[in-house]
Amino acid sequence: MDQVIDFGLLQTIDQKLDRLMAELDQEDKGSDWPLYMDTTTAAKYLAVSYDTMARLGRIGAVKHKSVGSKRIYRRDWLDAYMER
Fold it and tell me: What three-state secondary structure class fits 36?
């Protein structure tokens, strides 16, 4: 079975990925804090103890994603929690 590769489509996808990466880079500029944080870093960012941050994540008070046994927090999710 012959497969046809649409190089125009591949080029369009590549350009869109470049734009998305540039947006992510721009979003992260101007902050000394990383875009994604583990519980220890998130606790420092919110100026709370590790135990408090772990509890906030465990009860769902702060949005996070679980990666294996770790909780990962985005900086904007932590900002949203602080603004509530």
Answer: strand
